[in-house]
Sequence to fold (416 residues):
Amino acid sequence: MRGFCLKIIALVCALLFAAHSPAFAQTDGSTPPAPTDGQTTAPSGSANAPSLEDLGISSSQAQGSAQDQARLDKRSHMLKIHQRLGLIDTIPLAATVATSFGAGGRSTSNDWRWTHLALGSATGDLYFTSAYFAIFAPKIPGTQVKGPIRLHKALAWIHGPGMILTPILGAMAFDEKSKGERVHGIASAHGPVAIVTAAAYGAAILSLTFKW
Amino acid sequence: MAGASSWGELFGHFVNRNRKSLVALVALVAVAVALIAVRDCAAQDSQWVLEQSTLTYHVSHPLHQVDGVSHAARGKGVCHAGECDFLIAVAVKSFDSGDSNRDLHMQQVTKAGQFPLVTVRTRLPETLAGAATINADLEVEFAGQTVQYKQVSFQQVTEGDQVRITGAIPAKVSDFKIDPPSLFTVAIKNDIPVRVEMTWQRAK
Fold:
């Protein structure tokens, strides 16, 4: 009888102790046993684990929106086209500069001059198409512009007007040359303006290529 | 009355016969209650709050070595029954590489518009509180993917109620199914280790 009572007592005590233990009270088996050898377990779905709300992050802040992602995607897509066209444009630009040396002859009909004109036109077309994608790429609200992109954008204030002025001055120079005249007046600025424009354009590309 | 009296006699007789057993029962119950109280006191929730943090991702490209830094992480740890569950969250857009154009492109490729947060979860035994090195299993949620990193090593220095943790998470671009960004058709390296420096404060 005494032995039986002691067994009952021991069982009751064990059950009392176990019933209060959260580790034993878990019935879904989701909580792994506490590691003892310094290993740890990532607590996915643990009941005691803190939540984002505990960190002061609301569910609306935690969840993004498809519109925000679409804006980022569209921006990246347009800037990639801008980059691609801008890089391609260096080819006719370099060729235009190269043909400029033969375009200034005294002849009224000069093949080099026509080639220079055609290449310059192609450069301008590609340039403004590329610029369109940069200018109309969606802006991301709250973004503070910093880094090399500031120099890249600043240089656009040089090569942008330059790309407008250069063909105008070039057309004037072409017209004067076609009449057999010496290039004079404002048209004589065609060469210097073109050089500054090409230099600013090259610097704009390099500003994003190498880390300063 | 007679029934009650006989029940009383029977109870008295039972008590007399099993006095020692009953004393042992009372003593054991008392010990069990005391143990429960001690264990519950020991298992009482304690909390940790992330005081300061510097998270730095590193990207390698033949033309660029880029570090993006964020100090905006928030974190909390809840200890219960000998284990501590930690959650750290940081906004993807809070990482600053010194180039806003690159940061926005990073946000695009990591789908930060749709998944604006990086979260890291881990569970540590409370007994590791004083250890110099912690090997943690991390569950990282980023760019719409959940990735487990096993046994990531962190150094730990305890100063009073503060704990300073340093280490690196060996993240890879491919882990999160991110299309690696490229410059001049050359993609960045797959490894984007994230250096972690955190100071945790035990909540009062």
Q: What stands out?
A: Chain B touches chain A through 69 residues (CB under 8 Å). Chain B has two domains: 2-41, 45-202. The longest strand of chain B covers residues 46-61.
